[in-house]
Design brief:
This protein has 360 residues and is an alpha+beta fold. Helix content is 42%, strand content 10%. It has one domain. Strand 7 and strand 8 form a beta hairpin.
Protein backbone atom coordinates (compact mmCIF):
# COMPACT_ATOMS: atom_id res chain seq x y z
CA UNK A 1 0.00 0.00 0.00
CA UNK A 2 1.55 3.31 -1.05
CA UNK A 3 1.84 6.27 1.27
CA UNK A 4 -0.89 8.17 -0.52
CA UNK A 5 -3.01 5.19 -1.49
CA UNK A 6 -6.51 5.59 -0.15
CA UNK A 7 -8.52 2.69 1.17
CA UNK A 8 -11.77 4.66 1.13
CA UNK A 9 -13.08 8.19 1.43
CA UNK A 10 -10.69 10.13 3.73
CA UNK A 11 -12.34 11.02 7.01
CA UNK A 12 -12.21 14.64 8.11
CA UNK A 13 -10.68 15.39 11.51
CA UNK A 14 -12.25 17.26 14.41
CA UNK A 15 -9.57 19.55 15.86
CA UNK A 16 -10.95 18.81 19.32
CA UNK A 17 -9.48 15.30 18.98
CA UNK A 18 -5.92 16.50 18.35
CA UNK A 19 -3.38 16.15 21.17
CA UNK A 20 -2.71 19.87 21.50
CA UNK A 21 -6.42 20.66 21.73
CA UNK A 22 -7.00 17.94 24.33
CA UNK A 23 -4.21 19.34 26.49
CA UNK A 24 -6.00 22.72 26.52
CA UNK A 25 -9.05 21.31 28.29
CA UNK A 26 -9.43 22.39 31.91
CA UNK A 27 -11.64 20.71 34.52
CA UNK A 28 -14.73 22.68 35.39
CA UNK A 29 -15.14 24.29 31.97
CA UNK A 30 -17.84 23.59 29.42
CA UNK A 31 -15.25 22.45 26.89
CA UNK A 32 -13.79 19.90 29.33
CA UNK A 33 -17.17 18.49 30.31
CA UNK A 34 -18.41 18.36 26.74
CA UNK A 35 -15.29 16.75 25.30
CA UNK A 36 -14.98 13.96 27.85
CA UNK A 37 -18.70 13.28 27.73
CA UNK A 38 -18.10 12.43 24.07
CA UNK A 39 -14.68 10.80 24.58
CA UNK A 40 -14.82 9.26 28.09
CA UNK A 41 -12.07 6.74 27.37
CA UNK A 42 -9.55 9.56 26.87
CA UNK A 43 -10.22 11.35 30.14
CA UNK A 44 -7.99 9.53 32.64
CA UNK A 45 -4.99 9.41 30.32
CA UNK A 46 -5.34 13.06 29.38
CA UNK A 47 -5.71 14.07 33.05
CA UNK A 48 -2.51 12.18 33.83
CA UNK A 49 -0.63 14.03 31.08
CA UNK A 50 -1.92 17.39 32.29
CA UNK A 51 -0.60 16.65 35.78
CA UNK A 52 2.91 16.31 34.37
CA UNK A 53 5.29 19.27 34.08
CA UNK A 54 4.09 21.57 31.27
CA UNK A 55 6.31 22.30 28.32
CA UNK A 56 8.76 25.16 29.00
CA UNK A 57 8.02 24.85 32.72
CA UNK A 58 10.63 24.12 35.43
CA UNK A 59 10.92 20.47 36.32
CA UNK A 60 11.48 18.95 32.89
CA UNK A 61 14.61 16.84 32.47
CA UNK A 62 16.20 19.27 30.00
CA UNK A 63 14.73 22.48 31.37
CA UNK A 64 16.91 25.54 30.81
CA UNK A 65 15.36 28.76 32.14
CA UNK A 66 17.08 31.03 29.62
CA UNK A 67 16.24 28.90 26.59
CA UNK A 68 12.71 28.23 27.84
CA UNK A 69 12.17 31.94 28.27
CA UNK A 70 13.34 32.67 24.74
CA UNK A 71 11.11 29.94 23.29
CA UNK A 72 8.10 31.14 25.28
CA UNK A 73 8.65 34.68 24.01
CA UNK A 74 8.63 33.48 20.38
CA UNK A 75 5.35 31.62 20.93
CA UNK A 76 3.84 34.63 22.73
CA UNK A 77 5.00 37.06 20.06
CA UNK A 78 3.21 35.15 17.30
CA UNK A 79 -0.03 36.77 18.41
CA UNK A 80 1.56 40.24 18.26
CA UNK A 81 2.90 40.08 14.70
CA UNK A 82 2.05 43.25 12.84
CA UNK A 83 2.32 43.35 9.07
CA UNK A 84 4.30 46.19 7.52
CA UNK A 85 1.82 48.16 5.40
CA UNK A 86 4.57 49.52 3.16
CA UNK A 87 5.76 45.99 2.41
CA UNK A 88 2.20 44.95 1.56
CA UNK A 89 1.78 47.86 -0.85
CA UNK A 90 5.07 47.13 -2.58
CA UNK A 91 4.15 43.47 -3.14
CA UNK A 92 0.61 44.38 -4.12
CA UNK A 93 2.11 46.45 -6.93
CA UNK A 94 3.91 43.30 -8.15
CA UNK A 95 1.20 40.69 -7.61
CA UNK A 96 -1.90 42.49 -8.84
CA UNK A 97 -0.77 43.25 -12.42
CA UNK A 98 1.38 40.11 -12.76
CA UNK A 99 0.80 37.93 -15.79
CA UNK A 100 2.01 34.99 -13.71
CA UNK A 101 0.67 35.58 -10.19
CA UNK A 102 1.66 32.10 -9.05
CA UNK A 103 5.37 32.69 -9.64
CA UNK A 104 5.18 36.22 -8.25
CA UNK A 105 3.54 34.94 -5.07
CA UNK A 106 6.16 32.19 -4.76
CA UNK A 107 8.90 34.80 -5.13
CA UNK A 108 7.29 36.82 -2.35
CA UNK A 109 7.15 33.82 -0.02
CA UNK A 110 10.79 32.91 -0.70
CA UNK A 111 11.88 36.51 -0.15
CA UNK A 112 10.33 36.34 3.32
CA UNK A 113 12.45 33.34 4.31
CA UNK A 114 10.68 30.21 3.08
CA UNK A 115 12.94 27.54 1.59
CA UNK A 116 10.21 25.97 -0.57
CA UNK A 117 6.69 26.85 -1.68
CA UNK A 118 3.98 25.07 -3.66
CA UNK A 119 0.29 25.39 -4.46
CA UNK A 120 -2.48 22.83 -4.22
CA UNK A 121 -6.20 22.44 -4.54
CA UNK A 122 -7.70 22.61 -1.06
CA UNK A 123 -9.09 19.15 -0.49
CA UNK A 124 -12.01 19.18 1.96
CA UNK A 125 -10.50 16.11 3.65
CA UNK A 126 -7.68 18.35 4.94
CA UNK A 127 -9.99 20.88 6.62
CA UNK A 128 -10.91 20.40 10.28
CA UNK A 129 -14.61 19.87 10.91
CA UNK A 130 -14.71 21.89 14.16
CA UNK A 131 -12.40 24.13 16.14
CA UNK A 132 -10.94 22.82 19.37
CA UNK A 133 -7.72 24.52 20.40
CA UNK A 134 -9.22 27.31 22.50
CA UNK A 135 -12.28 27.43 24.76
CA UNK A 136 -13.40 30.66 23.07
CA UNK A 137 -14.31 28.95 19.79
CA UNK A 138 -14.49 25.35 21.00
CA UNK A 139 -16.81 23.31 18.79
CA UNK A 140 -17.33 26.01 16.18
CA UNK A 141 -17.86 24.50 12.75
CA UNK A 142 -15.05 25.28 10.32
CA UNK A 143 -16.38 26.90 7.17
CA UNK A 144 -13.50 27.30 4.73
CA UNK A 145 -14.41 27.54 1.07
CA UNK A 146 -11.20 28.68 -0.48
CA UNK A 147 -10.35 26.56 -3.54
CA UNK A 148 -6.55 26.71 -3.18
CA UNK A 149 -3.74 26.67 -0.67
CA UNK A 150 -0.29 28.21 -0.93
CA UNK A 151 1.94 26.03 1.24
CA UNK A 152 5.50 26.82 2.27
CA UNK A 153 8.36 25.44 4.36
CA UNK A 154 10.81 27.07 6.75
CA UNK A 155 14.01 25.25 7.63
CA UNK A 156 14.96 24.25 11.14
CA UNK A 157 18.65 24.82 11.78
CA UNK A 158 20.71 21.64 11.43
CA UNK A 159 23.11 22.46 14.29
CA UNK A 160 20.26 23.26 16.67
CA UNK A 161 18.55 19.97 15.87
CA UNK A 162 21.69 18.04 16.81
CA UNK A 163 20.84 18.91 20.43
CA UNK A 164 17.61 16.88 20.33
CA UNK A 165 15.91 16.27 22.76
CA UNK A 166 17.52 19.07 24.79
CA UNK A 167 16.33 22.63 25.30
CA UNK A 168 17.71 24.26 22.11
CA UNK A 169 15.31 22.18 20.02
CA UNK A 170 12.14 23.76 21.37
CA UNK A 171 13.67 27.22 20.97
CA UNK A 172 14.36 26.43 17.32
CA UNK A 173 10.83 25.08 16.91
CA UNK A 174 9.42 28.29 18.39
CA UNK A 175 11.65 30.43 16.19
CA UNK A 176 10.48 28.68 13.02
CA UNK A 177 6.83 28.65 14.06
CA UNK A 178 7.18 32.41 14.47
CA UNK A 179 8.80 32.75 11.04
CA UNK A 180 6.07 30.68 9.40
CA UNK A 181 3.38 32.80 11.08
CA UNK A 182 5.10 36.00 9.93
CA UNK A 183 5.29 34.79 6.32
CA UNK A 184 1.69 33.61 6.39
CA UNK A 185 0.36 36.90 7.77
CA UNK A 186 2.25 38.97 5.20
CA UNK A 187 1.03 36.80 2.33
CA UNK A 188 -2.54 36.93 3.66
CA UNK A 189 -2.36 40.74 3.80
CA UNK A 190 -0.95 41.04 0.29
CA UNK A 191 -3.62 38.78 -1.21
CA UNK A 192 -6.39 40.64 0.62
CA UNK A 193 -4.96 43.96 -0.58
CA UNK A 194 -5.18 42.57 -4.14
CA UNK A 195 -8.88 41.88 -3.65
CA UNK A 196 -8.75 38.16 -2.90
CA UNK A 197 -10.04 36.25 0.11
CA UNK A 198 -7.20 34.72 2.12
CA UNK A 199 -6.54 33.15 5.50
CA UNK A 200 -3.18 32.38 7.08
CA UNK A 201 -2.77 29.13 9.02
CA UNK A 202 -0.03 29.12 11.65
CA UNK A 203 0.84 27.79 15.10
CA UNK A 204 -2.31 27.15 17.17
CA UNK A 205 -4.44 28.81 14.47
CA UNK A 206 -4.96 26.09 11.92
CA UNK A 207 -8.18 25.36 10.06
CA UNK A 208 -6.34 22.87 7.84
CA UNK A 209 -4.05 19.88 8.37
CA UNK A 210 -0.73 20.93 6.92
CA UNK A 211 1.37 17.78 6.26
CA UNK A 212 -0.95 16.15 3.68
CA UNK A 213 -1.57 19.56 2.13
CA UNK A 214 2.20 20.03 1.74
CA UNK A 215 2.42 16.61 0.10
CA UNK A 216 -0.30 17.60 -2.36
CA UNK A 217 1.56 20.85 -3.10
CA UNK A 218 4.65 18.89 -4.14
CA UNK A 219 6.83 19.81 -1.15
CA UNK A 220 7.68 16.28 -0.03
CA UNK A 221 6.23 13.03 1.22
CA UNK A 222 4.97 11.81 4.57
CA UNK A 223 7.55 9.72 6.41
CA UNK A 224 7.32 6.95 8.97
CA UNK A 225 7.43 9.65 11.67
CA UNK A 226 4.25 11.16 10.16
CA UNK A 227 6.18 14.37 9.53
CA UNK A 228 6.78 15.81 6.09
CA UNK A 229 10.06 14.65 4.55
CA UNK A 230 11.16 17.41 2.17
CA UNK A 231 13.82 17.32 -0.49
CA UNK A 232 17.10 18.93 0.72
CA UNK A 233 15.85 19.37 4.31
CA UNK A 234 14.28 16.06 5.30
CA UNK A 235 12.12 16.37 8.41
CA UNK A 236 13.85 19.59 9.55
CA UNK A 237 10.99 21.81 8.38
CA UNK A 238 7.96 23.58 9.72
CA UNK A 239 4.98 24.16 7.46
CA UNK A 240 2.82 27.22 6.93
CA UNK A 241 -0.06 27.88 4.56
CA UNK A 242 -2.43 30.51 3.28
CA UNK A 243 -5.72 29.38 1.77
CA UNK A 244 -7.21 31.68 -0.85
CA UNK A 245 -9.45 32.19 -3.85
CA UNK A 246 -6.56 33.74 -5.78
CA UNK A 247 -6.27 31.81 -9.09
CA UNK A 248 -2.94 30.03 -8.62
CA UNK A 249 -1.55 27.14 -10.64
CA UNK A 250 -1.51 23.91 -8.69
CA UNK A 251 1.68 21.88 -8.34
CA UNK A 252 1.81 18.11 -8.63
CA UNK A 253 2.89 15.78 -5.81
CA UNK A 254 6.47 14.56 -6.05
CA UNK A 255 8.05 11.17 -5.53
CA UNK A 256 11.26 11.24 -3.50
CA UNK A 257 11.44 7.50 -2.90
CA UNK A 258 10.30 7.97 0.71
CA UNK A 259 7.86 5.04 0.51
CA UNK A 260 10.53 2.40 0.02
CA UNK A 261 13.20 4.16 2.08
CA UNK A 262 11.04 4.51 5.19
CA UNK A 263 9.97 0.87 4.89
CA UNK A 264 13.55 -0.32 5.36
CA UNK A 265 15.10 2.53 7.36
CA UNK A 266 13.02 2.69 10.59
CA UNK A 267 15.66 4.89 12.23
CA UNK A 268 13.10 7.35 13.58
CA UNK A 269 11.04 4.55 15.16
CA UNK A 270 14.09 2.76 16.55
CA UNK A 271 15.32 5.96 18.21
CA UNK A 272 11.97 7.25 19.47
CA UNK A 273 12.42 7.33 23.27
CA UNK A 274 8.68 7.03 23.87
CA UNK A 275 8.09 4.21 21.35
CA UNK A 276 5.34 6.34 19.81
CA UNK A 277 6.30 5.51 16.22
CA UNK A 278 5.45 2.29 14.41
CA UNK A 279 8.28 0.02 13.32
CA UNK A 280 5.86 -2.22 11.43
CA UNK A 281 3.87 -2.00 8.23
CA UNK A 282 1.49 0.74 7.20
CA UNK A 283 -2.15 0.41 8.12
CA UNK A 284 -5.33 2.24 7.06
CA UNK A 285 -5.74 5.42 9.12
CA UNK A 286 -8.80 7.54 8.28
CA UNK A 287 -8.92 6.01 4.83
CA UNK A 288 -5.22 6.47 4.00
CA UNK A 289 -2.38 3.96 4.31
CA UNK A 290 0.22 5.30 6.77
CA UNK A 291 2.37 4.40 9.74
CA UNK A 292 0.40 5.10 12.92
CA UNK A 293 1.70 7.24 15.77
CA UNK A 294 0.66 7.10 19.43
CA UNK A 295 0.40 10.83 20.28
CA UNK A 296 -0.14 10.21 24.00
CA UNK A 297 3.28 8.56 24.29
CA UNK A 298 4.93 11.30 22.26
CA UNK A 299 3.40 14.13 24.30
CA UNK A 300 4.12 12.35 27.57
CA UNK A 301 7.81 12.25 26.69
CA UNK A 302 7.73 15.93 25.74
CA UNK A 303 6.45 16.76 29.21
CA UNK A 304 9.02 14.51 30.80
CA UNK A 305 11.96 16.25 29.13
CA UNK A 306 10.38 19.71 28.84
CA UNK A 307 10.93 20.07 25.09
CA UNK A 308 9.29 18.92 21.87
CA UNK A 309 12.02 16.27 21.56
CA UNK A 310 12.87 16.40 17.82
CA UNK A 311 14.82 13.13 17.72
CA UNK A 312 12.70 11.66 14.92
CA UNK A 313 13.30 14.81 12.85
CA UNK A 314 17.03 14.97 13.49
CA UNK A 315 17.71 11.23 13.12
CA UNK A 316 16.06 11.02 9.71
CA UNK A 317 18.79 10.39 7.09
CA UNK A 318 17.06 12.89 4.79
CA UNK A 319 17.71 15.60 7.41
CA UNK A 320 21.47 15.65 6.82
CA UNK A 321 22.93 18.92 5.47
CA UNK A 322 22.36 19.69 1.80
CA UNK A 323 25.85 18.77 0.60
CA UNK A 324 26.89 17.38 -2.80
CA UNK A 325 27.20 13.88 -1.31
CA UNK A 326 23.77 13.96 0.34
CA UNK A 327 22.18 15.37 -2.81
CA UNK A 328 23.62 12.40 -4.70
CA UNK A 329 22.22 9.96 -2.13
CA UNK A 330 18.79 11.58 -2.23
CA UNK A 331 18.77 11.45 -6.02
CA UNK A 332 19.70 7.76 -5.90
CA UNK A 333 16.81 7.06 -3.52
CA UNK A 334 14.48 8.89 -5.88
CA UNK A 335 15.51 7.16 -9.12
CA UNK A 336 16.55 3.77 -7.72
CA UNK A 337 14.42 3.05 -4.63
CA UNK A 338 15.52 -0.59 -4.66
CA UNK A 339 18.91 0.64 -3.40
CA UNK A 340 17.37 2.00 -0.21
CA UNK A 341 18.48 -0.90 1.99
CA UNK A 342 22.23 -0.60 1.21
CA UNK A 343 21.96 3.19 1.50
CA UNK A 344 20.45 2.80 4.98
CA UNK A 345 23.36 0.55 5.92
CA UNK A 346 25.83 3.18 4.68
CA UNK A 347 24.06 5.85 6.70
CA UNK A 348 24.30 3.62 9.78
CA UNK A 349 28.00 3.10 9.09
CA UNK A 350 28.83 6.80 8.79
CA UNK A 351 26.40 8.30 11.31
CA UNK A 352 25.57 5.39 13.61
CA UNK A 353 22.31 3.57 14.14
CA UNK A 354 21.55 5.08 17.54
CA UNK A 355 20.94 8.77 18.04
CA UNK A 356 23.65 10.59 19.96
CA UNK A 357 23.15 14.11 21.33
CA UNK A 358 26.08 16.25 20.17
CA UNK A 359 25.63 19.06 22.66
CA UNK A 360 23.45 20.43 25.42
Amino acid sequence: MGMSEQTGSPERVDERDTMFARMERRAGTFAYDDYYARRPAARSGDDRLRRMTPLLGPGGQHYDPRVAGEAAEYFRAIGDIEVDGGLVERWKAWVRPSRNPTETIKALVRSLGAVAVGCAELDQAFIYTRKGRFDADYGRQVDLRHPSAIVFLVEMDFAAMQHAPCAPVIRESARQYYRAAEIGKVLEAVLCACGYAARAHYDAHYDVILPPLAVKAGLGELGRNNILVADRFGSRVRIGAVTTDCPVDHDAPVSLGIDRFCEVCRKCADNCPSHALSDGARVPVRGVGKWPTVPERCHGYWRQVGTDCGICMAACPFSHPDTVLHRLVRRTVRVAPWLSRPLVRLDDLFYGRRWKVTGR
